[in-house]
Amino acid sequence: MSENNSSLNADQLRQHVRESYAEVAEASNAGDCCGEVASCCGVSDDTAINTLISTRLGYSEDDLANVPAGADMGLGCGNPRAIASLKAGETVIDLGSGGGFDAFLAAREVGEGGHVIGIDMTPAMISKARKNAEKGAFSQVEFRLGEIEHLPVADNTADIIISNCVINLSPFKDQVFADAFRALKPGGRLAVSDVVATAVMPDEMKNDPMLHAGCMAGASLIDDLEVMMQAAGFEQISIVPKDASRDFIRDWAPGSGVEAYVVSAYIEAVKPGACCADSACC
Predict the structure, then answer these.
(1) Angle at the Cα of 221 (from 218 to 224), degrees rounded to 5?
(2) Which residues of the chain have pLDDT under 50?
């Protein structure tokens, strides 16, 4: 079920998103607002503002205090670590890692014996994240330039894949899930916070590049996401919408009414273990 939710073609969509998030990285470096990416306009040089935004998304003040300054850019729609159940020594892939915020928090949980790979398609974000890793001395974290539809990792690499409000940006979500499945070890887990559609969005919203880059117009219906994930091979699929998220989504695009069509959700799934096809051992 390949999809493209905009009148722009896939290449144009990808380039628009890449340019928009390059502006986010540059604006964050300068302590300014973030151009047209509505959901990140809380990026500020005021620590109190950044703290308010991130705690609203489910992060603690302890989380914010334990990452390098500038890693938290206010770009998420939830906290994927709340459902990830990370363990010491695990390998984690973070899809759309941005400035490295979730990757660094994951690194604290997997410890020195673990490994975290952040992947982002925006060179400015990769540069920012690598500098943040150096500042924070996160030796077990690395950042790779790449697209989430074609992950720059080997098969069966990760114990868990996390992502925060990024998969909705892809015009080919079926390929995102297929490649995530490939990159996970047998028995590996998917733990994602993302924006999903609860009703069919009007064409004028679907075709609005600003709403797309702002993580709203590209959202897929929950039933469609389940079909894509099943086709990729995932089992134990769970998609839990958070109706309270409409309050902060309303702030992303004031007056647009988009909050009537989309919400943040926690998305979980498991790649079956190698023995599960003919045995109950898993």
Answers:
(1) 110
(2) 1-2, 4-7, 30-46, 276-282
How big is the CA angle at 19 (ends 18 and 23), to the nearest 5 degrees? Answer: 115
Q: Which pLDDT score, from 0 to 100, does residue 51 have? A: 61
Domain boundaries, the chain: 10-270
Given CATH 1.10.150.130, say whether it is the number of domain 10-270: no
- Which ranges of 57-94 does DSSP label H, i.e. alpha helix? 61-65, 81-84
Q: Which of left, alpha, beta for 143 (phi over 0: left; psi -120 to 50: alpha)?
A: beta
Backbone angles phi, psi at 31, to 5 degrees: 75, 25
**Which pLDDT does position 179 carry in this prediction?**
98
CA atoms of 221 and 219, how far apart (whole Å): 7
The span from the CA of 184 to the CA of 260, in Å, is: 34
Q: What is the separation, in whole angstroms, between the first and last Cα of the chain? A: 29
Cα distance between residue 10 and residue 1, in whole Å: 14
pLDDT score for 11: 66
Burial code (b: 16+ CB inside 10 Å, e: under 16) for 59-72 equals beeebbeebbebbb
Do 168 and 192 touch, CB atoms closer than 8 A?
A: no
Q: How far apart are CA 277 and CA 110, in angstroms?
A: 29
Model pLDDT, residue 89: 98
What pTM value is reported for the model? 0.85
